[in-house]
Design a protein that fits this description.
InterPro entries: SCO1/SenC, Thioredoxin-like_sf. This is Protein SCO1/2. This protein has a seven-stranded mixed sheet with strand order 4-3-7-6-5-11-12. Helix 1 packs antiparallel against helix 7 and helix 3 packs across helix 4. The chain folds into two domains: 47 residues; 219 residues, Glutaredoxin, CATH 3.40.30.10. The longest helix has 27 residues. Strand 11 and strand 12 form a beta hairpin. With 285 residues, it is of the alpha+beta class.
């Protein structure tokens, strides 16, 4: 009786999983055959709001826009990218996942067995139209605390830029975001491993990062060999609801994840558990 109920529940979970995952069209899980077939990960949040990542491994970033660092100095992006670089599009006054994204990156690079400022560097790039070098400076103070006192100040740069230049730069990396109010944006959570002079090597999806993944991306950037990301599930800061004019949890994506977890548990119960409980031949029943 219990197994029959579990079987029925498993079938129901599969049906629900198919329905909920059908709505989670922002997620892709196929491996393209070549960088030409790099994935286009899209999320239409309603009302024409469209955010996502179009991976462009092997392409070169737009570097001609006007940018300023946390010190207020105007910088040239091509000169900033003089080493294998982890580039993080974000905005510094984000009330949600940007802080987790940047903190996760700080934690991951803190444990790297590479020399910051000599073998690699990190660049945070604000795509906000409102943010200034003062915002970049404040953000730098916050995340340098995670790295500790021994981390070189010049190894992590925080940038802001003019709106048109930032739009072209984000477009060159296939990063699509949208503004939904004063200093409020819907955006993907992703970082890029970039070779010197701006060649895109790999996309690293957040908001969490593994030190091993970061190191692999930097090694590939040092070699200048572009590759398509294995992990293509993009998380988004939040979904914008044009009717309520607020940010809401993506229920369908969450339900799909829970459903797949339930299916896995049911599989273990129906297939694995009976084999574990089965007595050996000649044993006592």
């Amino acid at each position: 009786m219990i197994r029959a109920a579990a079987t029925a529940l498993c079938v129901l979970a599969l049906a629900l999983g198919g329905a909920t995952l059908g709505f989670s069209h922002g997620e892709m899980d196929h491996e393209p055959e070549s960088p030409v077939d790099a994935p286009m990960v899209t999320e239409d949040t309603g009302g024409g709001v469209d955010v996502g990542v179009d991976e462009k491994p092997g392409d070169t970033l737009y570097t001609e826009g006007r940018l300023w660092n946390e010190k207020g100095e105007q910088v040239n992006l091509e000169e900033v990218l003089d080493l294998p670089t982890l580039l993080i599009p974000a905005y510094y006054n984000c009330p949600r996942s940007c802080s987790f994204l940047l903190a996760a990156m700080a934690t991951a690079v803190r444990d790297l067995d590479l020399f910051p400022g000599m073998e690699y560097r990190v660049v945070a790039l604000s795509f906000s139209e409102e943010e200034t070098p003062a915002d970049a400076a404040q953000a730098k103070v916050q995340y340098m605390k995670i790295l500790g006192g021994g981390y070189p100040d010049e190894a992590w740069t925080f940038l802001v830029g003019d709106p048109e230049g930032i739009k072209k730069l984000c477009a060159s990396m296939g990063y699509r975001y949208t503004r939904n109010g004063p200093n409020a944006y819907v955006h993907p959570n992703v970082a890029l491993a970039v070779a010197p002079r701006g060649k895109i090597i790999r996309y690293l999806y957040g908001p969490d990062f593994l030190t091993a993944d970061i190191k692999k991306g930097l090694q590939e950037a040092a070699d200048g060999v572009a590759s398509v990301s294995i992990r293509k599930v993009v998380t988004f800061c939040f979904d914008y609801d044009p009717e309520s004019r607020g940010y809401v949890l993506n229920v369908y994506r969450t339900m799909g994840t829970v459903t797949l977890t339930l299916v896995g548990l049911m599989f273990l119960y129906l297939v694995v558990a009976p084999k574990v409980r089965k007595p050996k031949a000649g044993g006592r029943i």
